[in-house]
Amino acid sequence: MTQTTSSSVQPAPIPAIVLVRPQMGENIGAAARAMWNFGLDHMRVVAPRDGWPSQSAVAMASGAGRLLDEAQHCDDLPGALSDCDFTFATTARGRDLTKPVYSPEAAMRLAAEKIAAGQRVAVLFGPERAGLENEDIAQANAIVSVQVNPKFASLNLAQCVLLMSYEWMRAQGEVTHEVTEMAGTDWAKGAEVDHLARHYEERLEEAGFFYPEHKTASMKLNLRNMWSRMPLTRADVQMLHGVLRQMVRWKEKG
């Protein structure tokens, strides 16, 4: 028998996160927070040890309490998976079961493909003490395994949920892998970099830097190449002009 606190079963354009026999309400709440960090809000809780609803889960969930309000409470795993087309079971150890084993990244890519095709996908997470039993994993279509330190392979429930939730977001193409904060400035234009290069070249010429004479051309070429390699902002260019001007003033005072 399956019970749910929501008014209807979600069609889920996202995977359902299924916590199987979780032991501590705090870990359920932490898992909810991890899910919501990455845009997942479809939780199913199967036979929690301390009953349902859980006040300790609500306290730990903090701003993600809505996920617990809407979570499905299921008495058993078959009931939790009754509407699912494809299920992943997470485990950190071998189970002697013939099933495809995916990395979290590959699993969430496949989940995204199946959901885009109209299928319902679930990801199972086992209880804190020992993880999923083989009887649980036998009900899944595939296994997700994480490469961890073999001397300490146990992942906290919320950590495991966080890892899979992050990979789900990556599968959606919503992770920005690199960004440069411009801090109120813009990248320098070619003309600005050229003006800076000429400024330094002229002052270095006056200072007698280009010596001996037969190396002058190659030294100037290397300097120009250096300026072009540097990702300079307009603020950088202005500062470097200012540095050179101050050095010249200091020299003239001396």
UniProtKB/TrEMBL annotation:
Record's keyword annotation contains Transmembrane helix: no
Class of this enzyme: transferase
InterPro entries in alphabetical order: Alpha/beta_knot_MTases, RNA_MeTrfase_TrmJ/LasT, SpoU_MeTrfase, tRNA_m1G_MTases_N
Subcellular location: Cytoplasm
GO biological process: one example: methylation
Keyword Kinase: no
Enzyme Commission identifier(s): 2.1.1.200
Keywords, comma-separated and alphabetical: Cytoplasm, Methyltransferase, S-adenosyl-L-methionine, Transferase, tRNA processing
Reactions the enzyme catalyzes: cytidine(32) in tRNA + S-adenosyl-L-methionine = 2'-O-methylcytidine(32) in tRNA + S-adenosyl-L-homocysteine + H(+); uridine(32) in tRNA + S-adenosyl-L-methionine = 2'-O-methyluridine(32) in tRNA + S-adenosyl-L-homocysteine + H(+)
GO molecular function terms attached to this record: methyltransferase activity
SUPFAM superfamilies tied to this protein: alpha/beta knot
Main location: cytoplasm
Ranges for domain tRNA/rRNA methyltransferase SpoU type: 17-166
One protein family per Pfam: SpoU_methylase
Similarity annotation: Belongs to the class IV-like SAM-binding methyltransferase superfamily. RNA methyltransferase TrmH family.
NCBIfam families referenced in this protein's UniProt entry, alphabetically: rRNA_methyl_1 (TIGR00050)
Its biological purpose: Catalyzes the formation of 2'O-methylated cytidine (Cm32) or 2'O-methylated uridine (Um32) at position 32 in tRNA.
Oligomeric form and interacting partners: Homodimer.
The protein's name: tRNA (cytidine/uridine-2'-O-)-methyltransferase TrmJ
